[in-house]
Amino acid sequence: MKRARVLHIITEMERGGAQLFTLFTVENLDPLRFDPYLLSNPRGVLNGEAREALRERFLTVPSLVRPLSPLGDIGALLQILNIIRRLNPEIVHTHSSKAGVLGRWAAKLSGREVKLVHTVHGFAFSPFHGRFSNTVYKTLERLTAPLTDLFLFVTDEDRKEAERLGLLKRSSWTIVRSIVGVERFRQAAARREGLREKMGIPLSTPVVGGLFPFKPQKDPLGFIEIANLVHQRLPQALFLVGGDGVLRKEMEGLIEGYNLREWVHLLGWQERAEEFLPLCDALLLPSLWEGLPQVLVQAMACNVIPVASSVNGTKELLRDGRNGLLFSPRDYREGAEKVLQSFEDKTFRGLFPEEAKKTLEGFVPQEMVALQEQLYQKLLERR
Question: What pTM does this model have?
């Protein structure tokens, strides 16, 4: 049986939920039925893992970047177009907004008979983006939607947003929950004492973790603002932040300004998140917008309490006061109160383990891949 060639396209392979979803999918598609390729830019921290898994089937386009760049975006479109013509895939599967727009139009312009699948991991517009950027991306999404054979959504909130924008008039859609690697985080929870001892952190020390790229979407400066407010009430609390990115210097400036050097530590990228999360009692994620943040599920698997801003994806995943705690985006005082509640509210702490366990039962990575395989097969049968 001839294998179907599937080309996945994503802007950058940073250590985020959309990227882990994509990499897990291409690594685990049935090799007897599918021949997967992955295209991204050459700067992602996960590129090494992608290249190790896919070898020559991992492709890069240097001009594929996240910010809007008319000349660069045209260059990226032409390079992706040439790759599609050379590979001649049966399916092009794009992820997120920039790669989603460029990848789908490149496939359309290629003149090849190709089915187009697009996964929405959150949209590139929100109340926290500028008016110009929001207008451009909403317009591009509306223009590109009719090309799409199948939309996949990681949250129902994003599906509703797509309906409000009129993106689903000519396309079918399915919800695909994008969580991977839960089991290894369950196992890591038992190593908490040893990991703390290795880091020299007493078990009695309250530890708040952060695990995210230092980019505007994740509001890393908000993390420092909340840390400062918590420190005023709980001065012995320690804040450990795994990640890196464009806002690192601004974070360091805030830490210096608030005199938090002893209490807030930026640890860089954490290659093994399962050895980082068990160090923490709570995980703080102050994002301004989200898809379906995997780190919250990973935290629950480690019996670490998620404290997160109430945005799309997050508020669909967490029930406040049950399996996590929610606060309004950029409301740093409320965020600090929720972090303090994670340590002080005995009723909530008693409920949390069982509620987290119930949530985790809904995430089986292999089922996620199997569902995509079924959807691919249906599309191919309609050719």
Answer: 0.81
